[in-house]
TrEMBL record:
One of its GO terms (molecular function) is racemase and epimerase activity. GO terms for biological process: menaquinone biosynthetic process. Its EC number is 4.2.1.113. Residues 142-235 form the Mandelate racemase/muconate lactonizing enzyme C-terminal domain. Its cofactor is a divalent metal cation. The gene is menC. It is an enzyme of class 4 (lyase). PANTHER family: O-SUCCINYLBENZOATE SYNTHASE (PTHR48073:SF5), O-SUCCINYLBENZOATE SYNTHASE-RELATED (PTHR48073). It comes from Nakamurella sp. A5-74. This is o-succinylbenzoate synthase. Keywords: Lyase, Magnesium, Metal-binding. SUPFAM superfamilies: Enolase C-terminal domain-like, Enolase N-terminal domain-like. CDD domains: NAAAR (cd03317).
Amino acid sequence: MKLLGLDLLTLAIPLVSPFETSFGSQSSRHVILIRAETSVGIGWGECVAMSSPVYSSEFNAAAELVIADHFAHPLFAAENLSGGTVGHVLEPFKGHRMAKAAVELAVLDAELRAAQMSLGTYLGATKDRVPAGVSVGIMPSIPELLAAVGGYLEQGYLRIKLKIKPGWDIEPVRAVREAFGDEVLLQVDANTAYSLRDAGHLARLDEFGLLLMEQPLQDEDLTEHAKLAARLTTPICLDESIESAKDASDAIALGATSVVNIKAGRVGGYLEARRVHDICRAAGVPVWCGGMLETGLGRAANVALAALPGFTLPGDTSASARFYHQDITAPFVLEDGHLRVPTGPGLGVEVDEDAVASFLVSRRRIDPTNAPGPVIA
Ligand code: OSB
Ligand code: MG
C-alpha cells in the first residue's frame, strides 16, 4: 500500500478519578491518535506517550514532532508499505518507540481492515477473551485504597496491582491482604522508585505472597535488579527496563527478571511486542500485557496481544470504565472478569467521531505536500 496522509489528533480525556503513581498524579489523559489515510483505506493508531517525560523519555509534543518532521517523509516515499515494513522504514531513527508504535498500528489497522482480518488473528491469538487485572493508584489514605480495591473486586477484576513508592508500600499491601485475604492475586508496581539500598525494606513484602514486584529500580539497573532478585522471594517483573526483544533476552539471561510486562508502545510496536512474547515463551518466562491508560483503540490492540499463548498472567487490561466515563469507541466491559477479544477486521472497534470531537484539542494534517524532506544535518 501507499501512505497518502497522516492526521494527528490530540485529545484531552478526563479520568474518572486522579491516577497517582510514584512519578506523579494525572487527572486527564492527553493522547495523540493517528489516522492513516492509505491506498487501501483508513487505519487508526494510538500513541501511549504522556504529556511529560516521566515514565520514559518520550512525551506527546516530541512524538508529534518526530512523526511530522522525521517519520512522515520516508513513510510517504515507501512504495510497498505494510504494517510489517513500517519498523524497517523507521529503523534509521533512534528511540521514539511509542511514536513508531502508533504509526505502525495505524498502518497495520488499515492493512488488516482491507484484508478483512482481525489484529488478534494476525498476531496469533489463541483465546477469545482475556482475564482482566486492574492497576490501582497511590491513594490519599488506606481506607480510600480499601474502598477502591473492594469496588474493583466486586466488579470482578481477577488481579489487583497496587502502585507503591517509599512511604506507601508495606502498609497498603498489608491492609489489602488483611481486608481481602490471601487468595486475591496481588502484585505491586514501583515505577523505579527504589534503589538497591532498599533491598532489605522491599524484602518485607515477601511475606504477603505477591505475584510479582514490577520495576522497583531504575530503567538501566539490570545488574541491580538481578542482585535484588537474589535477595527476594517475590519475583521481579521488568516494565520500564525492557524496550526491545533484545532487552528482554538480556534481562532474562542476567536473572534480572522472571516475569515480563509487555507494552507495545514501550518496545516500538505490536510486532516487536510479539517478538518479546516469543522470546519469553521460549525461555519459560510468563508475560502479561501492561497498559498506559489506553482509549478503546489502544485497548483493542492490547486485548488482541494479550490473547497470545504466552500471556499466562492477567494484564492491566481493564474495562474502559476503569479510567473513562466516555470512551472514544464502544466501551470495553468486564464479562465475568474478562474482556472479549475483538474479532472484526483490524482493531475491530470503530471510532466514535462525536466523542473524538468532544475531546479534541488540536488536529494536524501531514501529507506528501507538507512533510519535510530528509533532515540529517
Ligand atoms: O507502570 O504500568 C505502569 C500507567 C501509566 C504509566 C505507567 C504505568 C501505568 C499503569 C496503568 O500502571 C496501567 C493501565 O493502563 O491500566
Ligand atoms: Mg509498570
